[in-house]
Write a structure and sequence with these properties.
The protein folds into two domains: 261 residues, Metallo-beta-lactamase, Chain A, CATH 3.60.15.10; 65 residues, no CATH class. The chain contains eleven helices and 18 strands. Helix 1 links the parallel strand 3 and strand 4. The model has no long low-confidence stretch (mean pLDDT 94).
């Protein structure tokens, strides 16, 4: 099964937290946290459609300015999501600059900011470059089951966690995954081509089975075209399987409520990106800082049933002891004492 996402940490595990999730079949990406973004070239930043910010400590938010600078003057938009108070914080960042010349910018860059509360009420603000980023309220909405973004192929879900301040954990959930049986295509005399993406799109948006699908391709014998009902192609050449889940959790205290919420969010995740800040010998220090130790992160991953665990957010005090952090989280995930 080929997932539609390609997730990668923005920085090395000792750097600022951040996860860049590229779409394999679209010119689009999602970003989780806005710390140091200098590792991302402009062409990657310009692919970002949505940014999900766990909380606004500096190492998770100061990269907003780089994002803004690269997007200014372009005819594009971006959506930001964050915890309570987030909209005002974005507004304050924008208010720190002078915008008297933005009318001359060729593109009408727009920022939509959504902040959510613990009752999953979302309040939104639109800020337009050509209007000097003055706040325009958007209609409030209720988020069912913590779902921040819901599209035909995937959804992004959040959980409220505790870091001494409200902090969001996130899961990207691919919906039904559509696999193509290439041998069955050949049996029907069909070739692969761009039309398969159109077929998959029709399935993910739950189009009726009678929807006509145009199968077309070009080879050395010229152009070919055939039309089938969607239902027939689903039965003959497609395999529908549950999609994968990618989870991102950082900056959380180790206590019962957090553990329960994280394990629910990350249950059976294909990939769990989880902070691994301290060794367990420094558990008291970790508790004071509201962070996880490697052992605690590993035990959470084990309880969640995550298939692959990628630790990050290592404390610089372990710059020469990275292998110990990795060994401790893996031992805990395996259930070793």
């Amino acid at each position: 099964m080929r997932p539609i996402f390609s997730p990668v940490l923005v920085n090395d595990p000792f750097g600022d937290p951040g996860l860049y999730v590229d779409f394999k079949f679209e010119k689009r990406a999602l970003l989780f946290d806005l710390g140091d973004l200098t590792a991302l070239p402009p062409k990657k930043i310009l692919r970002i459609s949505d940014v999900f910010v766990s909380h606004t400590h500096m190492d998770h938010f100061f990269g907003f300015d780089r994002l803004l600078r690269i997007c200014l003057g372009r005819d594009t938009g971006i959506r930001l999501y964050g915890p309570p108070g987030f909209a005002a914080q974005v507004g304050h960042k924008l208010a720190a600059y002078t915008w008297n010349l933005v009318e001359n910018y060729p593109g009408g860059f727009v920022v939509d900011v959504w902040e959510v509360d613990s009752g999953w009420q979302a309040s939104g603000t639109r800020l337009r470059c050509h209007k000097h980023f003055r706040c325009e309220p958007l209609d409030a909405r209720h988020l069912h089951d913590g779902v921040l973004l819901d599209e035909p192929a995937f959804r992004v879900r959040a959980a409220f966690l505790d870091h001494g301040t409200p902090c969001l954990g996130f899961a990207i959930e691919e919906k039904t995954h559509v696999n193509v049986w290439k041998n069955r295509l050949a049996e029907l005399g069909l070739a692969v081509g761009p039309w398969l993406k159109e077929l998959k799109d029709a399935v993910t948006r739950n189009a009726p089975d009678e929807t006509p699908v145009r199968a077309w391709w070009r080879d050395r014998n010229g152009e070919h075209e055939r039309v089938f009902p969607l239902g027939a192609l689903k039965a003959e050449v497609l395999r529908l399987v549950p999609g994968q889940k990618i989870c991102y959790v950082t900056d959380v205290a180790f206590h019962k409520d957090n553990v329960q919420r994280i394990t629910a969010l990350a249950a059976d995740a294909a990939q769990l990106f989880i902070e691994c800040v301290f060794l367990d010998q420094d558990a008291d220090h970790a508790a004071r800082k509201h962070h996880l130790t490697a052992r605690q992160a590993g035990s959470i991953a084990r309880e969640a049933g995550a298939k692959l665990v990628i630790p990050f957010h290592f404390s610089p005090r372990y710059a020469e002891r990275e292998a110990e952090l990795r060994g401790e989280i893996e031992a805990a995930r395996a259930g070793s004492p």
